[in-house]
Design brief:
By secondary structure, this protein is of the alpha/beta class. The protein has a single domain, classed as UDP-N-acetylmuramoyl-L-alanine:D-glutamate ligase (3-Layer(aba) Sandwich). The protein is about 30% helix and about 25% strand. It contains 8 helices and 18 strands. The protein has an 8-stranded mixed sheet with strand order 5-2-11-12-15-16-17-18, with helices on both faces. The chain has a 4-stranded mixed sheet with strand order 4-3-9-10. The chain has a two-stranded parallel sheet with strand order 1-7. Helix 1 packs across helix 5 (about 240-255) and helix 6 (about 260-275) runs parallel beside helix 8. The longest helix is centred in the C-terminal third of the chain and has 23 residues, at about 320-340. Residues about 1-10, about 90-100 and about 345-360 have low confidence and may be disordered.
């Protein structure tokens, strides 16, 4: 049975198509389950886009056991179970302060076929499979119906051990997706995943954004590259950080920001996500501050010439100030939250808590 949150108002026409299955994430440490939550890149991305009031259409498949409450109804594959991932965290803390993670796919839902996609056009498409559910032919169909397609490389290079489901990565050029690179707009890659591709080669075909956690990200395109500054964060769980980055990145592009400013917004939402365990809940006060800053930035920016795929790569004047403004908004929200805990300010209701197995 699939349950959804009922909407009380009509949404605007979606400009973003998200393709990737929902998952059930189980966090394990010391052989003990320390957390369970709705997972999948699509859930983190949807949380960011919903928070930024950006309409999207989501194509995701779930099994007969799906019990989460979500805003967009997934496709029910009754003969399958919902994709499940177990994330094992070791006891050691590395020099960068982060914990290592071993990811295993315990079961996989049905793949997403080209015929599952809507017969409509979108400004932006996002191929964000996590369990091998996005097929090459599905990505090709997305390219046909979307003006700009952004792809998370994990949808392309993940392989899974036949015995225990441990996630393994393969070289990008060995996959059936490689020939489609000249037709996509942006490939998002983590610094670890970048070892499974040739950045210098791929940047000739499309924009490549390499995320590197607390060091921010680097944007590569055919004619240049830019480093985009990070935001300070007290990391609790790295799960979904790259997904939230991509959600923030697309949120910026939808609102007309050039790629450097959009990547900055991506870094911002990634920093918010790592400070929480599981799917993040964004403070409504903070979201409003971010929306205001984005609109102010949009009005201030001088738009440079666009490339062939419609993206703007040059860093406009005032980029550093935009970073400072977002950082100040985050700090202000944290101070307000602390004041609420002390009873100085009234509490502000954030996003609804997502139910786990039917329980809030």
């Amino acid at each position: 049975m699939v349950t959804t949150a009922h909407k009380t108002h009509q949404n605007p026409t979606p400009r973003v198509l998200i393709v990737g299955n929902y998952c059930h994430d189980v966090l394990i440490q010391n052989d003990t389950i320390v957390g369970e939550s709705l997972g999948g890149a699509c859930s983190f991305i949807s949380a960011v886009l919903n928070g930024m009031s950006i309409a999207s259409s989501l194509i995701a498949k779930v099994g007969h056991d799906f019990r989460y409450q979500v805003n967009q109804i997934p496709i029910l594959a009754p003969s399958f179970k919902t994709t499940i991932f177990h994330a094992y965290f070791d006891l050691g803390v590395h020099d960068n302060g982060n914990q290592d993670r071993v990811l295993k796919r315990i079961c996989a839902c049905d793949s997403i076929k080209p015929t599952d996609l809507p017969d409509a056009r979108f400004d932006f498409g996002m191929a964000v499979g996590v369990g091998g559910e996005v097929l090459p032919e599905t990505l090709e169909r997305m390219i046909e119906i979307c003006d700009v397609v952004l792809v998370d490389i994990q949808a392309l290079i993940r392989d899974f051990d036949v015995v225990d489901g441990a996630v393994k990565l393969v070289q990008l050029h060995e996959t059936r997706f490689f020939s489609l690179l000249p037709r996509i707009g942006v490939l998002k890659v983590s610094s670890e995943e970048a070892m499974f591709m040739d950045v210098e080669e791929v940047r000739k075909y499309c924009c490549v954004v390499v995320t590197n956690g607390e060091e921010g990200c680097t944007v590569y395109w055919k004619d240049g590259e830019l480093s985009i500054s990070p935001f300070l964060a007290n990391q609790q769980d790295p799960t979904g950080a790259g997904d939230s980055f991509l959600g923030g990145f697309v949120a910026g592009l939808v609102q007309g920001l050039p790629v450097p400013d959009a990547a900055l917004l991506g870094n911002f939402f990634g920093s918010l996500t790592v400070e929480q365990i599981g799917l993040p809940k964004f403070d409504l006060r903070l979201l409003q501050k971010v929306k205001d800053e984005v609109q102010r930035r949009k009005m201030q920016s001088l738009h440079p010439e666009k490339s062939d795929n419609g993206l703007m790569f040059l860093k406009p004047a005032g980029h550093e100030q935009f970073h400072s403004s977002l950082g100040a908004a985050k700090l202000s929200a944290a101070q307000e939250s602390a004041a609420m805990e002390q009873g100085i300010l009234p509490h502000c209701t954030g996003q609804p808590v997502i139910a786990v197995n039917g329980k809030p």
